[in-house]
Write a structure and sequence with these properties.
3 domains, BirA Bifunctional Protein, domain 2, YbaK protein, Rossmann fold, homodimer, 15 helices, six-stranded mixed β-sheet
Chain lengths: ~575, ~575
């Protein structure tokens, strides 16, 4: 196809849009790919829609190749199935809810677990029917609190979601593996730089879970990776490396010290180091106990929770929340402290907590045999050498402490470094939660019902347009990988002479005849304007039909490397076809 | 591609679904193409989605070929643009409205006039930018009062909508003509039997308007066509053929008669024919006056409206409404009559109406010089020979009378016959309504602003799946035209012998290698079940790998004609390729 810029519905902008902060947002708007309609709601203009469709086609081809079957659910859904799984309520304000003319409750689908489960239940009955993997590529709706960065986090967005249905855990593991391998192929074809990180399963429940994160500086997800292996994980999913437990036999007795004016870790450490105790203390030797309250879903009452962790670490709220999900968690307020006089602020120790029945979870580093300086449950007093497993036994451990660069990698190889990314895919073993809630079983060979186990797999298709733009751009504009570019070649007629126009048209026709997608700049604009637009739009190969023509050559420019090659005019078509076909 | 029925997500049903009344609905559900999720809201299973995508591809190819450019708007839209055109209110209960988490008003797009207009306004400024035609293929939402017939009238449905933007009326006419020709190509490629009918423009405003109606007995639109020309029109759009006006000079005087017990046309005609007036009367000689009340959009008060039409015709409510749009109309209630004592029920005549300032519109057949028997505004009295243009002058004419088979065709050739159809497309000259409401102008060559004139063009893409099924089915199942079938050929392995299986697999591979889409029935089911399913599913060519194989032949069956041909086994692939390529 030849797309003529003289009639293309495209007007590029010289200025960044006022509401744009990240490069992809600025460039996709400036280059005329998308336009904002409402917060997190965008229109796709011709070039943007082409990139979107090319990405969608790659996703579809790989899903089909793995044997998944495409179906399509409505976006407008009745309340009932979501009521059955409690998600009508659990989704909270993220769900777009509406009523129809008869007052019936509807929602705009944020994900379609319920529909997939019910549909398989409707068609399949026997164990012989399984396994099956189904997918759809469809607009999803989430009323994000903070839609941002253009199409990177929208409220209406295109997603590929798929589900696997298996009879056994081994079957699920195989389906999961197949999806994971397919995602690797998809993201590789799209030219993305990404890591696969271990993830917590979050509100969805389930077991094995990995996220595909594209590495971009503006990513809103922080993850860590090992310096010495391919280990990578969401910060929420990092498992703390605990030291081995030690023998408590020869450890010194715990001793309470009067430590006036030491309400903070820093003042405490300073005090201890000046107290002549015969050794040097650091914040890592102290055990601080932080009070929260938690509430299980549906429960009325809050419960106290104390988290004990080394004094040199802060609580990472996201890790804490992920560990406690689906329960809510909040910091303890003054009023709560007042109700529990045994909580002596600044001097809370394990004893008062355990004696008063407060649930007490500690950092995994607090293993048996570790000795701590901690609160003595009395103003201006701390206890030194309080030994875990001897002097106190917590109710369990919790992953709540911040993860730091330099921490040992959980796989034992190297240390952790931090990086930022954007989630582009998620594969995850959902298990039997939805099958149980909605009654999806198969009649087994022994005529007994078998509850189906499910996997859930998602790719943010429209988001990928922005993610690729984040990874492929420079100061002048977008730099599309060949597989997703809105055209294969951008032919610029750089001048008003009829010979240039004729040569440009002829080249475009030759390329078109060979199946090459041509963007032809046949406008009356100046060569300077056209070159700027070509850089901004970002088609990988640019052919300049300009001054060189008099000498029988055209300039072929690589957008990414800025390499310019002069090619004899009658060889240009073959040259470009060679580039396009790779 | 080879689609194996042993793993295809498809379970056919032997029974019609309880809620289905029309053939397409029954068959699309039974053959596993669609499933109901809520009233007017359906899921597409694999075979259904393939047919939908093939139709979509044909629509897209023809739209691209005519030079329209594809874009995509969100379905979730903010209220403001629809407020500017008053459609937020005018749409009434047909619009799905919702609020976001911040209380902002949103809607699910029923049509996108506002967005198209505003988007062109955002990108284009000069007369040199025009003309342009833009389209999208996208899910639309309408909260139909009576969703029916499966996907034939859904509340979420896929639509191709396009708009043309021109500087001049001539430009609009050309864009309209191009769209109309493209629609003819699309519907022809889809194998549809359809007519193009003149339509009223309805609530949308505008001038020229034509509907593409697929002819099906279950259609909800009645239209009429000429017995002698290609004239066809929506009943609402039929223009009554009026007789020529006559000279009033020599006509007899109007005379009031005492006509006791004649409150109906029938009793009146009987009375007159027994009254010795020297001529024979029929209902067509009487003029009945029917009282309505109308209210303009936004107005508080209702206004009286009297419609006068020949006594042998009833009012067609849809024609009346179409004539009065956008005003509301309702029949006059007893209470209203009580308020206006000059309205003598059963005996209302033009005089009292005109004397009392009631708006009085008559059927176009009531031309100057026609003489009527009508009410004398007094109980049990009628006036005979009341002559239009002499004894009364109505306020105008109105198209409100029913159209009957046998009426003269408006183009003067032949008479009208009635038929039923379903709207599959609509082309129509919207004019400057939206451009004016939203300020879409171009700077003309003289630096003065030119208001853009628009055309609006729609095709119900998902509906077409059902419409084609209505036109292409028989008692055994669906009979898809080749261009939209979910596969090119259905290969049935009719038996459990390994030789049959091997031959079926080999044939499928050979066909696949030549680019033929194969549906391969490799299930363990009996041949009888497989044949029934093949008929139900409706792929145009069925190859039976069965008993004939022993004699070196396979049976190739045409689904539509039931023609069966025995083809030597090593020629079957070439034979089928020939059928597929046409």
């Amino acid at each position: 196809m030849i797309t003529r810029m003289s009639s293309l519905f495209l007007r590029t902008l010289r200025e960044d849009p006022a509401d744009a902060e990240v490069p992809s947002h600025k460039l996709l708007v400036r280059a005329g790919y998308v336009r904002r309609v409402a917060p997190g709601v965008y229109s796709w203009l011709p070039l943007g829609l082409r990139v979107l469709r090319r990405i969608e086609a790659i996703v579809r081809a790989e899903m089909d190749a793995m044997g998944a079957q495409e179906i399509q659910f409505p976006a407008l859904l009745p309340r009932e199935p979501y009521e059955a799984t409690n998600r009508w309520t659990e989704y909270g304000p993220n769900l777009f809810r509406l009523k129809d003319r008869k007052g019936g409750d509807y929602l705009l689908g944020p994900t379609h677990e319920e529909l997939f489960t019910l549909t398989v239940k409707g068609e399949y009955a026997s164990y012989k029917d399984y396994p099956v993997s189904l997918y759809q590529i469809q607009n999803k709706y989430r009323d994000e609190a903070r839609p941002r960065a253009g199409i990177l986090r929208g409220r209406e967005f295109l997603m590929k979601d798929s589900y696997s249905f298996d009879l056994t855990d081994e079957g699920l593991a195989a389906s999961y593996g197949a999806h994971r391998a397919t995602y690797v192929r998809i993201f590789d074809r799209l030219g993305l730089k990404y890591v696969i990180v271990k993830a917590t399963s979050g509100a969805m429940g389930g077991s094995a879970s990995e996220e595909f994160l594209a590495e971009v500086p503006i990513g809103e997800d922080t993850f860590v990776r090992s310096t010495a292996s391919d280990y990578a994980a969401n910060v929420e999913a990092v498992v703390t490396t605990a030291p081995p437990a030690r023998d408590v036999a020869d450890l010194p007795e715990a001793q309470v010290h009067h430590t006036p004016g030491t309400p903070t870790i820093e003042t405490l450490v300073d005090f201890l180091n000046q107290a002549g105790l015969g050794r040097e203390f650091t914040a890592a030797d102290t055990l601080k106990n932080i009070l929260f309250k938690t509430r299980k879903p549906g429960a009325k009452e809050w419960e106290l929770l104390a988290v004990g962790l080394p004094g040199d670490r802060e609580v990472d709220t996201k890790r804490l929340e992920a560990s406690l999900e689906p329960a809510e968690v909040a910091v303890l307020e003054e009023a709560d402290f007042a109700k529990h006089p045994f909580l002596v602020k600044g001097y809370i120790g394990p004893r008062a907590l355990l004696d008063n029945g407060v649930r007490y979870l500690v950092d995994p580093r607090v293993v048996t045999g570790t000795a701590w300086v901690t609160g003595a449950d009395k103003g201006d007093h701390h206890v030194v050498d309080l030994v875990a497993g001897r002097d106190f036994t917590p109710d369990g451990t919790i992953e709540a402490a911040e993860v730091r660069e330099g921490d040992p990698a959980p796989d034992g190889a190297g240390t952790l470094v931090a990086a930022r990314g954007i989630e582009i895919g998620h594969v995850f073993q959902l298990g039997r939660k939805y099958a149980e809630a909605l009654g999806l079983t198969a009649l087994g060979p022994d005529s007994k019902p078998v509850t189906i186990t499910m996997g859930s797999y998602g790719i943010g298709v429209s988001r990928l347009v922005a993610v690729i733009a984040e990874q492929y751009h420079d100061a002048a504009g977008l730099v599309w990988p060949r597989n997703v570019a809105p055209a294969d070649v951008h032919v610029v007629i750089a001048g008003k002479e009829e010979t240039l126009r004729a040569a440009g048209e002829k080249l475009a026709e030759e390329l078109h005849a060979q199946g090459v997608e041509v963007l032809l700049d046949d406008r009356t604009a100046s060569p300077g304007v056209k070159f700027k637009d070509a850089e901004l739009i970002g088609v990988p190969t640019i052919v300049v039909v300009g001054r060189g023509l008099a000498n029988g050559v055209l300039e072929v420019k690589d957008r990414a490397t800025d390499t310019r090659t002069e090619v004899p005019v009658d060889e240009v078509a073959a040259h470009v076809v060679g580039l396009v076909r790779g």
